[in-house]
Design a protein that fits this description.
The complex is a heterodimer of chains A (634) and B (165).
Chain A lengths: L5 H12 L5 H8 L4 H5 L2 E2 L7 E2 L16 H35 L11 H10 L9 H13 L10 H6 L2 H9 L7 H11 L8 H30 L5 E5 L9 E7 L2 H13 L1 H6 L5 E6 H11 L3 E3 L6 H4 L5 E4 L7 H9 L2 E4 L10 E2 L7 H19 L11 E5 L3 H9 L7 H10 L4 E5 L11 H12 L2 E6 H9 L5 H7 L2 H13 L9 E5 L4 H15 L8 E5 L5 H12 L3 E4 L9 H15 L2 E4 L3 H18 L8
Helix pairs in contact in A: 4-6, 4-9, 4-10, 4-24, 5-6, 5-10, 9-10, 10-24, 11-13, 11-16, 19-26
Chain B lengths: L2 E5 L9 H9 L6 H5 L9 E6 L2 E6 L7 H5 L6 E2 L5 E2 L12 H5 L6 E3 L4 E3 L13 H5 L5 E5 H17 L1
Antiparallel strand pairs in B: 1-8, 2-3, 4-5, 6-7
Classes of the chains: A alpha/beta (634), B alpha+beta (165).
């Protein structure tokens, strides 16, 4: 089985019939993959290499420069963290520029859609905004964000304002507080250059520091997106390929950054009549990957599919345009689109694909660019009219939009004076055993969504509240776990009672869904905000909470960075694939055990989802024991 | 006809994947990640060398006239019914006298000093399709498992195509 998703399975049949190459074919072509790479024992950092170290002691034990396996593995890992941090930093900075340009009046197609959040973020960052207009304050917040990227005077203000004091102390003790996001990324590239840092422990400390920089970038990204486009609130939609409409102009928004897609959502609403004049029933916007998550969270745009199955929507023959920004966009979509007439439109100057149509987003003329893009899609629709389409009739109901603000607002209906109290009371009573955040990607080496589904079913049954972001949230969306009806089916009695009580208090017809969709992968910082709020209320640090994270099908360097900062926040973090570190027993043991004494968090590597669920549950019970709460066996 | 591990020298990129796969195939767990934690480190029996700019994998040729069998004083080295030259499960156990090492013209027999035995390609690495681990691992097709004459026929075809077309 390649995917648990029925829609993907149906499209794979079509791919085979029509002889279209997909990501699964390319993995098969790549096998066997290099064992040195799998173990992290290959270094290409200088041209005296590539060097490989034998894992079995009967080959070279050092690279040409003398680097040992420990050094090599640590260097590789740290570089991956730096790359992930660079991706989130680029995303966050992009939003800061959009906010700044709007504040200066040069990007009129944007606006501050959540003034309350602007003022809250400003206050949190120590900016006195009482006398300032929205524009003036937006400019100050944008400047404050910009100041986080270069080297600053000390621990970055954004991290300090959002993490606990205890965390900051633990990180400082480890020498893992970065001076700035981009300076940290640059430092990691410097330290992993030939002949610089060769101490694996020191390199890992640097990696943690860079991961904290990544956390800061993620947090800025989420904060600024909320300010510009609105903080998500519960929204009802549907997910999967069945959301495509044969008679509409279908436009998929793919990538990660909402800077363009938000404008497209607005402009598409204005251009419905233009699409109808071209013979379409209208414009049907749909999402892929995290851009899809962004527009689902804020506008209910239905997500089609995620990560490894991004080629599938094209195979339906019904997708008129795939508009991409950056990150996780497979260049193969251009090749597949050639067979079906889908227009692949790249929009970022730093992320082009040969063979795609490039329409560069400029914030100054965003709406005009968006109109141009939609016209390309309408033209593609006209060209495909009358051709058969293969839309699998598969879709699930989705309730998404659970920002921290939305969760607190829902809880406030139970206790307006102290919204967190109902949540804490239920954790203490054991109705909620703990919380697990599912994050990360799909990985073609795992049957798509399998690990997510097995783990969620096991943990929900045992009253563990689940949060999800990114492609993890996407998996749950496509499999019906973001549907309140799933609470009835999957949640244990305690969890069901809590979710039902919140649902009732909020005038819903039923419970909340058993998995709360918190946003795109950059939005993992939302989960930290929630954990910090709970920890602060309990008067403990985040490393004491019965909270864990899992990236059961992770793939990207961004995921490595996020996983590392989740560990730095004190969480047990499960990985469902083996990261390329086993070549060093020292690094492996530090990441899975040694780091626990320093930061409280640690990695749990387990490829079997059933076992992984048991291990996360055990980690939660260990935390409950630590807090003096009642525990429950598996 | 017995199959042999044959080498297309022009295709070797020196990635040493064959070495790794050979060692893993001779581990207890038969998996890369599992082999790492085994007490007895698994040993490879294929060797990638570089001569000038040429990269070359080399392993036992399982010679028709095998000097290692003739030289084996212990009576361990023998040829199986499948044509595999091995010192395992022979009439007598290997004593680690290294006679075979000394007479092998290719130097592809090595020592396992801890156990004082000679180690060599033993083909105890075939998968369900009967293909050796090193051949399965080779990403460029430099290692071929096939009958000698069919390999030769392919070579002739290749040469003639280049020379005449």
């Amino acid at each position: 089985m390649l995917s648990r998703d029925r829609a993907v399975q149906q499209m794979l049949d079509i791919a085979r019939q029509q002889n279209v190459e997909t990501v699964w074919d390319r993995l098969a072509d790549q096998l066997p993959q290099c064992g040195f790479g799998e173990l992290g024992l290959c270094c290409r950092h200088c041209t005296q290499g590539p060097c490989r170290i034998s894992p079995f002691a009967d080959g070279p034990q050092r690279g040409v420069c003398g680097a040992t396996a420990d050094t090599m593995v640590a260097r590789g890992l740290v570089r991956a963290i730096a790359a992930g941090a660079a991706a989130h930093a680029g995303h966050a900075k992009h939003l800061a520029h959009a906010l700044h340009k709007w504040a200066r009046g040069t990007a009129p197609d944007y606006a501050v859609r959540d003034e309350a959040k602007l003022r809250a973020v400003a206050a949190r960052q120590g900016i006195d905004g009482a006398e300032l207009s929205t524009r003036e304050l937006a400019e100050k917040v944008a400047h404050s964000a910009f100041s986080q990227f270069a080297e600053g005077d000390g621990p970055m203000a954004w991290a300090r304002a959002t993490l606990t004091a205890g965390r900051m102390q633990a990180l400082e003790k480890l020498g893992a507080l970065p001076a700035g996001i981009e300076s940290s990324i640059a430092e990691m590239l410097h330290r992993t250059h030939i002949g610089v840092d060769a101490d694996p422990v020191n390199l890992l400390a640097g990696g943690i520091s860079c991961a904290v920089a990544d956390y800061t970038g993620c947090h800025i990204g989420t904060d600024l997106a909320d300010i510009l486009f609105g903080t998500p609130a519960p929204v009802v939609s549907e997910a999967n390929l069945g959301a495509l409409k044969p008679e509409a102009v279908n436009i998929a928004l793919h990538g990660h950054n909402p800077v363009l897609s938000e404008v497209l959502v607005r402009v598409a609403a204005e251009m419905q009549s233009e699409a109808q004049a071209a013979g379409a029933q209208g414009i049907n916007l749909v999402g892929i990957c995290c851009t899809g998550n962004e527009v689902l969270m804020r506008h209910g745009v239905p997500p089609l599919t995620h990560s490894i199955s991004q080629e599938m929507p094209i195979l339906t023959g019904a997708l008129d345009a795939m508009v991409v920004d950056y990150q996780c966009v497979y260049p193969s979509i251009v090749e597949v689109s050639r067979c079906y007439g889908t227009k692949v439109i790249t929009t970022m100057g730093m992320a082009k694909i040969a063979g795609a149509t490039h329409i560069e987003l400029k914030e100054e003329e965003a709406a005009e660019k968006a109109r141009q893009i939609i016209r390309e899609a309408i033209t593609a629709f006209q060209a495909r009219r009358g051709r058969p389409v293969n839309i699998p009739p598969v879709k699930s109901k989705v309730v998404a939009g659970f920002s921290v603000e939305a969760i607190l607002a829902a809880l406030a209906k139970l206790n307006a004076a102290d919204p967190l109290k109902p949540l804490l009371d239920n954790i203490v009573s054991g109705n909620i055993q703990g919380v697990v955040l599912f994050a990360g990607c799909n990985n073609v080496k795992v049957p798509q969504d399998h690990n997510y589904l097995v783990m969620a079913e096991e943990l929900l049954r045992r009253d563990v509240l689940l949060l999800a972001t990114g492609c993890g949230a996407g998996a749950y969306a496509r499999h019906g776990l973001l549907d309140p009806a799933a609470t009835e089916r999957y949640a244990g009695a305690g969890l069901k009672a809590v979710l039902s009580a919140i649902g009732q208090a909020n005038g819903l017809d039923g419970p909340l869904p058993p998995v709360l969709h918190m946003g795109s992968c950059v939005d993992n910082s939302r989960a930290v905000d929630l954990a910090v709020a709970i920890a602060s209320k309990l008067g403990v640090d985040t490393d004491k909470l019965p909270v864990a994270a899992s990236a059961p099908e992770f793939k990207t360097e961004k995921a490595v960075a996020i996983g590392t900062w989740a560990v730095a926040c004190g969480l047990p973090v499960h990985l469902g694939l083996v990261p390329p570190v086993l070549g060093s027993a020292l690094v492996t043991s530090l990441l899975t055990a040694g780091i626990k004494d320093l930061l409280g968090g640690y990695f749990i590597v387990e490829t079997d989802p059933q076992q992984a669920a048991e291990k996360l549950y055990a980690a939660i019970q260990e935390r409950r024991r630590g807090l003096g709460l009642e525990t429950r066996p598996w | 006809m017995n199959k042999e591990i044959l080498i297309r020298y022009d295709r070797c990129t020196g990635c040493r994947s064959c070495e790794l796969a050979c060692a893993v195939a001779h581990s207890a767990s038969k998996t890369l990640f599992g082999a790492l934690s085994e007490k007895k480190p698994p040993r490879k029996r294929i060797f990638v060398h570089q001569v000038g700019s040429k990269k070359v994998p080399l392993n036992c040729r399982h010679c028709a006239e095998a000097p290692c069998i003739d030289a084996c004083i212990a009576g361990a080295m023998h040829r199986t019914a499948e044509g595999v030259v091995t010192n395992e499960d022979g009439e007598q156990p290997c004593t680690g006298c290294w006679m075979c090492v000394m007479v092998c013209p290719y130097g592809v027999i090595r020592s396992e000093l801890a156990e004082k035995i000679a180690l060599k390609c033993d083909r105890n690495c075939l998968d369900g399709s009967g293909t050796p681990a090193c051949v399965r691992a080779c990403p460029t097709g430099a290692l071929v498992y096939g009958a000698v004459d069919s390999f030769a026929a392919d070579r002739r075809q290749e040469f003639l195509s280049k020379a005449l077309l």
